[in-house]
Structures are given as structure tokens and as C-alpha cells.
Design a protein that fits this description.
Elements lengths: L6 H5 L7 H24 L6 H13 L4 E2 H7 L7 H10 L3 E5 L7 E5 L1 H11 L2 H5 L7 H15 L1
Antiparallel strand pairs: 1-3, 2-3
């Protein structure tokens, strides 16, 4: 059974200035709903969403290294401090970093075997994560992606 929760019921607000205002509130509310889910998913693994994002970027580069600049460009959260997050991942031995021999101001960042193993464990949750959007069929998911791309365009 597909139960639809309306935004008005979720946040106990019956009136919006207009449909544009409602859409903005709805996108923000839905973003926070998904973030809350992911925070709970990552907590037992001892990582944050931003750390997960960097690990995925590094796995995509593997076995080649990534610079902090490249990581920043690819991160979902552009406000994150990539250098600080990389250092936290290094302390957990999930990544390693080396000063670039060609330019000592640059740092090459590599995902470690431990980091790859952690991502492999998290990959087992992919179906569970996808299920958060299971109330939408494939056509609706494609439409949602097109609309979100159009919104940002």
C-alpha cells in the first residue's frame, strides 16, 4: 500500500504564499528527510555523508590519486572543507595522502584498502537506499531527475 504524506500534514502548515513557495519548502523538507536517513545509515560505520562522498570520489579515481582541488570540484556539498575531511579519513586509515612530487603545494589523496572495504560494506545497502524512493516508478524517477536538472539549469 502506497501511503502519500502531504507536505501540509508533515509540517502542519495549511497555507503557502503560492505553489512556488510550497515547492521550495517541499524540496528543502525532502532534502532533510533524505539526509536524516543517510545520517542514520552511516552512523554505525563511523562516517559522515561528506566522508562517504569523498570515499566514493576516490573509489572512482582508483587506483589513480585525486587532488584536494578535484575532490572539492566533485563534492555534493560545496561548502564542505575537503582538506579537513580528508585528514579525518586519513586518521581512520580510510585514505592516504602524499605530497605531490611535481608541486609541493599539491597533495595526492588515495583510497586505502580499508576504505575500499568500507565502501563495499556500504554497497550492500544500495537496495535499501533505493527503496526510499520506491513510491515512484521508473518513469516518475526519470521525470523527477529531469525536473531537478531543469530547476538548477
Amino acid at each position: 500500500m502506497n501511503i502519500q504524506m502531504k507536505l501540509e500534514d508533515e509540517i502542519l502548515q495549511k497555507h503557502f504564499r503560492n505553489e512556488y513557495h510550497k515547492a521550495i519548502v517541499n524540496v528543502i523538507f525532502s532534502y532533510n528527510w533524505l539526509v536524516d536517513y543517510q545520517v542514520k545509515l552511516f552512523k554505525p560505520y563511523g562516517i559522515t555523508m561528506q566522508q562517504y562522498n569523498i570515499l566514493r570520489i576516490l573509489r572512482g579515481q582508483y587506483p589513480k590519486p585525486a587532488t584536494i582541488k578535484l575532490i572539492k570540484e566533485r563534492m555534493l556539498d560545496k561548502m564542505s572543507d575537503a582538506s579537513r575531511i580528508v585528514e579525518k579519513l586519513r586518521l581512520k586509515r580510510l585514505v592516504d595522502r602524499n605530497i605531490c612530487p611535481n608541486d609541493r603545494r599539491n597533495v595526492d589523496v588515495y583510497i586505502t584498502e580499508k576504505g575500499l572495504n568500507l565502501l563495499s560494506q556500504l554497497d550492500k545497502h544500495d537496495r535499501e537506499v533505493d527503496a526510499k524512493l520506491c513510491s515512484l516508478n521508473k518513469e516518475e524517477i526519470m521525470q523527477l531527475n529531469r525536473l531537478l536538472d531543469k530547476l538548477r539549469g
